[in-house]
Amino acid sequence: MRLVSVWQWSPWGLLLCQLCSWCLGSPAPSTAPDKKTGSQGLRFRLAGFPRKPYEGRVEIQRAGEWGTICDDDFTLQAAHVLCRELGFTEATGWTHSAKYGPGTGRIWLDNLSCRGTEQSVTECASRGWGNSDCTHDEDAGVICKDQRLPGFSDSNVIEVEHHLQVEEVRLRPAVGWGRRPLPVTEGLVEVRLPEGWSKVCDKGWSAHNSHVICGMLGFPGEKRVNTAFYRLLAQRQQHSFGLHGVACVGTEPHLSLCALEFYRANDTARCPGGGPVVVSCVAGPLYSVSGGQKKQQQPKPQGEVRVRLKGGAHPGEGRVEVLKAGTWGTVCDRKWDVQAASVVCRELGFGSAREALTGARMGQDVPKRYECANFGEQGITVGCWDLYRHDIDCQWIDITDVKPGNYILQVIINPNFEVAESDFTNNAMKCNCKYDGHRIWVHNCHIGDAFSEEANRRFERYPGQTSNQIV
């Protein structure tokens, strides 16, 4: 059967697809714990931060020297092979552009190409060991499934020494903890360390640091706080400090990327003459204020919106589009990173970006992909029809130029009655669907004569939806 790369198509398509292995087009990774004879002489480890034990920058030791892998041509199939080298059953994802920080030393592999079934990374095609034109800003990482291969001998796997690092940050209200409305926009900054949640010393604290904290928590900006009140309150409470000397530039998407210092276990005097850090953040437009509170004044946007996200399934994700000379266009992903993505996220009222997606992961911006004349190409436009053989596994309906509104989706099997059947009434399926310009809701699906004539007439006069509630 012909494989279908569904990620290449327009995000405005409606996919009718069987969930089968040949439709997804990805080979099932082997989980057998066979001995990897081809990897003898190589050692593997996961490095970088912030990360969990089953994810990180991939590093390989060859001839006594540790190095990394370039993300050029890197795929999930290569990640499967490397995760098995590291003792995990398979990969669930991979990262690019040094998401876990740039490595050092050699870049051992470039243009790595694997089928996903190889027993060793040495069986994969590449430019050759040590032959690369990449920099460490292009180091690849993997996210492995948190499941170990049974019987795996990890003599060739090295775990990087776990240094203290900041993984989670939260704001804890100084008063009324547990009774404050969500989201919490002001409070004491706490970081999660191995021994538990700890406060941060405010000596040398700057607005740049607050900017990074608010961005991590999903807020676009910070504002001043009443430090005198919190200083007075701090004198009456005991605090456990774990972090001090934080010095952020302000563009970092995560606190762990800032210069900072951890208190050592034998430090007797922690934060002398200082107090716990307090941060107040500005809530973005997505956060609505509960009815019991006075509604805060949101700043009105200045001028016309010039940046938007399209094709995302959830708020805060999508293909970046910018308005220039009255026309919307896209942004090239060359040198696109988390810092650049964070600028867009904050401009749209969100916090720092969690990930910068490349490779048209949210769909390409294309004038239409399917027309009425494209018979047999697994795609049609609205108002057209086509016949497909039984071996067609996916079908797209291109709605690029369709205006938002209420529609009826109809799919018919054996429309020309070419195959004999005892009952043809169950060959047609109809659904109500609503398109709001970003997403499609499909509901009230039924086949044949499932409805009475009166119910079917009401179905044809589909009144639509209001606020995502069917009426």
From TrEMBL:
| Gene Ontology CC annotations of this record | extracellular space; membrane; nucleus
The record's catalysed reaction(s) read: L-lysyl-[protein] + O2 + H2O = (S)-2-amino-6-oxohexanoyl-[protein] + H2O2 + NH4(+)
Question: In terms of domain of life, where is this protein from?
Answer: Eukaryota
Q: What Pfam families does its record include? A: Lysyl_oxidase, SRCR
Gene Ontology terms describing biological process: collagen fibril organization; inflammatory response
Task: Tell me the ranges covered by the SRCR domain, including all copies.
Answer: 44-145, 169-282, 307-365
What cofactor does its activity depend on? Cu cation
The region annotated as signal peptide is 1-25
> GO MF terms on file?
copper ion binding; protein-lysine 6-oxidase activity
Q: What does this protein do?
A: Mediates the post-translational oxidative deamination of lysine residues on target proteins leading to the formation of deaminated lysine (allysine).
Instruction: Spell out the protein name for this chain.
Output: Lysyl oxidase homolog
The organism of origin for this protein: Cavia porcellus
